């Protein structure tokens, strides 16, 4: 059983298309608005590395909302159709709704956000009022003991569920829920999560544990392949594949045969999708990265603060994208595993 990777026609034909060295268009931008987080997920910011003495970026090194708004408009002019705000934990950036309001005003832009949900119950209404339309919430288990083991700060499941409910009530729907699956930690949570979110009408997406950064001690043996996850769910709740909606959609989609909704699997380790990767990433301090697994980025903050014109910034982005040859997941090997890659909490996923 495999979903067909066919794409619906008319892929924003009116917009500018900037393609990289492997003919992939620039369509998506992920903006990390902070490198800080109130969780210490063991697969992302393990406490041994991100402990009390860890030096996060000082405020003056973060891009300001004004700088982010300016860059977002340049990216939109280059063909970017979707922006996802992320982090670290994006809701820890003070006044995020002000940035959302500015970005939501960019015509034709699909604006969304990924959060750990811990602060969502308080902020969902303000974000929706500012123009946010959708949200993705990360949650790795419904079992408190398992979840606390994964977030490593004793954060309870109930408060994330309250955040999801507040988001849906504020109209940030459909809410997507992301679950990273790590062998030996939360496989037993796969079915309870599938049952619960099917019932709630939210789309659950399972993410294979990835070797992002260098601090999480990743091992291939800890990855639960997406196929195994689909097989496990299908045995109890029969599934059928759904066509990809657009080029660059990273999740393989599956729907419940009884019509009760769908799930997604993001199989970046076992079934890499580099050939359709249309995403650029901006770190909180203004580094432009063209791959989640990159070791270096292009400094856009330096340009912004040296009074570069929009044309100069556009040229820098265009050159970076057109020269792009990244396909890390397709080339993953014992050698690439040892590279000094940027951390997930810095690049934003
Ligand atoms: N803090 C927010 C959150 O957790 O949703 C946004 C940033 S987080 C880096 C973005 C996404 O990356 C989350 O869904 C998280 O679960 C996922 N993630 C982090 N580390 C990962 C890893 N090693 N492998 C796979 N996904 C990972
Ligand atoms: Fe924080 Fe998100 Fe990383 Fe967890 S996955 S440590 S919530 S940035
Ligand atoms: Fe895109 Fe890099 Fe991931 Fe491949 S490995 S899909 S190029 S981000």
Distinct bound molecules: S-adenosylmethionine, iron/sulfur cluster
Using only CA atoms, what is the Rg? 19 Å
Question: How large a portion of the residues is in β-strands, by DSSP E?
Answer: 15-25%
| CATH level-4 homologous superfamily | Aldolase class I
| Principal-axes shape call | globular
The helix tally amounts to 12
User: Mean pLDDT score, rounded?
Assistant: 92
Give the termini distance in whole angstroms. 28 Å
Query: What is the CATH class name?
Result: Alpha Beta
Multimeric organization = single chain
Low-pLDDT runs of 5+ residues are 2-13
- Helix and strand sequence: EHEHEHEHHEHEHEEEEEEHHHHH
Number of strands: 12
The number of domains is 1
CATH-defined topology: TIM Barrel
The percentage helix is 25-40%
- Sheet with the most strands? 12 strands, mixed
Strand arrangement within the widest β-sheet reads: 7-8-9-6-5-4-3-2-1-10-11-12
CATH architecture name: Alpha-Beta Barrel
